[in-house]
Specification:
Distance between the termini: 85 Å
Largest sheet: 5 strands, mixed
Number of helices: 7
CATH topology of the largest domain: Immunoglobulin-like
CATH class of the largest domain: Mainly Beta
Strand content: 15-25%
Strand order of the largest sheet: 3-2-1-5-8
Number of domains: 3
Shape: elongated
CATH architecture of the largest domain: Sandwich
Structural class: alpha+beta
């Protein structure tokens, strides 16, 4: 009995120290949504269980190596134990009970993260290689930034233009795959003002690592001020070049092409129209309307030198008017 008491005390001490050590590491980023609460609660109980099981295995093992090692000169056989029915029943029932408890806790946490607010604000999310766009149907504009009001549930309705992507903001905790041909939904209630990042958590191609967009949680007042400003910009953008600017934003083009000369996944658009473009086959071509339209509809027809490994998706569904609007916008980037 003395050994059981000692081992029991050591298990409790080791489990407590293990848990405190793991907790001190701050393994989780800051919690910035209401959904983070039940997830972090579940994670904390899992860490407690892992710490206890670690101690329950390691402590008796190390204690047995020290307390029951063969003494010098001892040649006798140890006691032969055939089995212990009560112990075998206990270690069958106890883990089953623990698993059932954690299953209930997991179901409860999942239900809490999916709790529906009928007054939720809708944001339509479009994922494409390798950019995000966010449409605010209640306000009538599209943005490449995800800006959300604090303490207001957001219903994200998400779809993909090409391959499987996955919406993930670590501080919100929840993550959702976006499958082509489907509209998937995710609910988030931001609770902490700050600047975060939307990341793609599903490998989606050569530039997967760069598929990021800013995610900002604003106060209600700051969000309304921003939304009003964006509404004004959208209302003023009724010219062909204005419509083209909105179209390239909503199509995710700016995730690969810069408009300020900086290098991204694809060639910059600054000063592109009318310039001489070197191609991968050693020739050059003038970036006129015909070339640019062809590059939109059939990007692999003429590949720009230095970008041979970047596969741009074809935008064959664009209408002639939409392509004309994009070309009008490109002409303004001088």
């Amino acid at each position: 009995m003395r050994h059981f008491i000692i081992v029991g005390i050591l298990v409790i001490v080791a489990a407590s120290l293990t848990y405190m050590g793991l907790d001190a590491l701050n393994l989780m980023p800051v919690a910035a949504s209401a959904q983070a609460g039940p997830i972090d609660w579940m994670w904390n109980w899992q860490v407690i269980a892992m710490s206890f099981l670690f101690a329950l295995i390691v402590v008796p093992l190390l204690y047995s190596l020290a307390a029951f090692r063969r003494k010098k000169g001892d040649t006798a056989d140890a006691e032969h134990i055939v089995g212990n029915t009560k112990l075998e029943i206990a270690w069958t029932i106890a883990p089953l009970f623990i698993v059932m408890v954690f299953a209930y806790m997991g179901a409860y946490s999942l239900a809490e993260t999916r709790r529906v607010d009928p007054q939720a604000m809708i944001v339509n999310v479009t994922a494409s290689q390798w950019a995000w766009s966010f449409e605010y149907p209640d306000y009538g504009f599209v943005s490449t930034d995800l800006r959300l009001p604090e303490n207001k549930q957001i219903l994200l309705r998400m779809q993909s233009k090409d391959v499987i992507h996955s919406f993930w903001v670590p501080e919100f905790r929840v993550k959702q795959d976006i499958v082509p041909g489907r509209v998937t939904e995710l609910r988030i209630t931001p609770t902490l003002d700050g600047a975060y990042k939307v990341r793609c958590a599903e490998i989606c191609g050569t530039s997967h690592a760069y598929m990021e967009s800013p995610a900002l949680v604003l106060s209600q007042g700051d969000f309304m001020a921003w939304a009003t400003e964006q509404q004004g910009i959208a209302a003023a953008a009724q010219t062909p070049e204005g419509k083209g600017a909105l179209l390239v934003k909503s199509s995710g083009c700016l995730g690969c092409h810069s408009i300020d000369g900086s290098k991204l996944v694809g060639p910059t658009w600054l000063g592109l129209f009318g310039s001489q473009v070197p191609l991968s086959d050693g020739t050059t071509v003038t970036a006129d309307e015909a070339y640019l339209a062809e590059s939109i509809l059939n990007p692999s027809a003429k590949i720009v030198a230095g970008f041979e490994t970047q596969a741009m998706p074809a935008f064959a569904t664009l209408t002639e008017e939409e392509i004309a609007n994009i070309l009008a916008y490109l002409k303004t980037l001088k």
